Amino acid sequence: MRSTARIASLSVAALILFSGCRENVHSAHAQDAAPPAVRTVPLPISAERRTSTVIVAHNVLPSVVNIQTESRMRQQSLDPFFGFSDPRSYQTQSVGSGFVWASDGIVVTNAHVVEGASRITANFSNGQQLPATVIGVDPDSDVAVLRVESRNLTAAPIGTSSDLMIGESVVAVGNPFGLSGTVTTGVVSALGRSVPSKEEGRTFTDFIQTDASINPGNSGGPLLNIEGKVIGINTAIYAQAQGIGFAIPVDRARKIVEDLRKFGEVRSVWIGAVTTTLTPEEARRLGLRVSRGAVVSRIFAGSPAAVSGLEVDDVIVAVNGMAVDSREAFSTSSATLLAGRQLTLRVQRADRPVEIKITPVDTPADIGLRILTDISGITAANSGDGVVIQRVTRGSRAERIGLESGDLIIAVNGVEVTSTATVNQEIRRSLERPSIVISIPRGRFIYPVSFPMRR
């Protein structure tokens, strides 16, 4: 009987290894690279000890890297008698984890791991050290894509997060010190979590929640299912988390990585609607039978939303059959959409359900300036002094506030702007904000003026 059980255990281990090998071949073929060889667990180890977790960790560790960063900081000290001293430069170091996404030198990690770094080094489990450069960063998803000069790296097999089940086993792997990997295990605790970050005013959406330990050491490393496929990117962005961890779903990360590789930025689609989370008070005001969803608060003229017949005060309750219970959920459901591919919205309009077909488009290049004009009535232009208000639309909010042609715009949402290009860029980054704040100098004072995104 013991011999039979031993043979069965070896067979299960062999099947798992064969599955991991097949996935590596598929992943490498998609990246036009030779498939990495799957290492077998040393045979002297008994079959009873070669669990699924052991096999997953053993196979993925060559793909996991330690990310070491150096940053140069400048600091002034204040002397009570002599005032501020000359700025002094000093260097700081930090570490995190990452993993090989593609064997031709593409490494993925968290955006916060490489933020502000002047030098980045990728340390591999075999002792190899390679300098890394940043291809692109998406702070809104906490994803960064790096490149190292190598063409024969062992890439981690990329899976899918669309079929994750609450309670299924997961393995989080990291390489916090460049000496050896760390492995923690747990289960999928929840899906679609919204998580406040350590940065003020930012909330990450659609995260996988797990009880596998995730900390700054393995932040940026892969979260894997028991088949050894990457289903998420670990991220340590919630300082108050105790006994819980979060990961970016790989389906969302895949589009981000592809966009950053091709364009250096994430290219999101646009439907031309601003939404807010439905509150009980809002539901009562609108006389709705639903209590959860995303309320349409503004529709931009000529946008896909306007053409489709979507209306202000419609409540979006589903996108392509997937339930939507908040503005964040709607934003997340739109994150992986492709321009030109029609989507179906199920909305609640007053007392009846309505189905809306919308075809998203690529976000217009001048969307920030267009939105500024729509919500404020301001037309901005470049001048020798920076950015000025060229025209104020009659009857607009800007006119009612008292803004005039010739007024200087020195900042948007607290970020200094020097041209209409930087104004456009900053507003484009702020499409999910409830309002846009511009700073106008008058005399010795600077006045912040707020323009709500919702109508």
Model description:
With 455 residues, this protein is α+β, with helices and mostly antiparallel strands. It folds into three domains: 1-74 and 88-267, Beta Barrel (Thrombin, subunit H), CATH 2.40.10.120; 269-362, Roll (Pdz3 Domain); 367-452, PDZ domain (Pdz3 Domain, Roll). It has ten helices and 29 strands. The protein has a six-stranded antiparallel barrel. A hairpin with a 4-residue loop joins strand 12 (222-225) and strand 13 (230-235). The longest helix has 29 residues, at 2-30. Residues 1-38 have low confidence and may be disordered.
In brief, what are we looking at here?
By secondary structure, the chain is of the alpha+beta class. Helix content is 22%, strand content 38%.
Which secondary structure elements does this structure contain, and how are they paired or packed?
Blueprint: H1 2-30, H2 52-60, E1 64-75, E2 78-79, E3 83-84, E4 88-102, E5 106-109, H3 111-114, E6 119-124, E7 129-138, E8 143-148, E9 169-174, E10 182-196, E11 203-210, E12 222-225, E13 230-235, E14 245-249, H4 250-263, E15 269-270, E16 273-277, H5 280-286, E17 294-299, H6 304-308, E18 315-319, E19 322-323, H7 327-334, E20 343-349, E21 352-358, E22 361-362, H8 367-376, E23 378-383, E24 386-392, H9 397-401, E25 408-409, E26 411-412, E27 415-416, H10 420-428, E28 435-442, E29 445-452
Antiparallel strand pairs: 1-4, 1-6, 2-3, 4-5, 5-8, 6-7, 7-8, 9-10, 9-12, 10-11, 11-14, 12-13, 13-14, 15-22, 16-17, 17-18, 18-19, 18-20, 20-21, 23-24, 24-25, 26-27, 26-28, 28-29
Helix pairs in contact: 1-2, 8-10
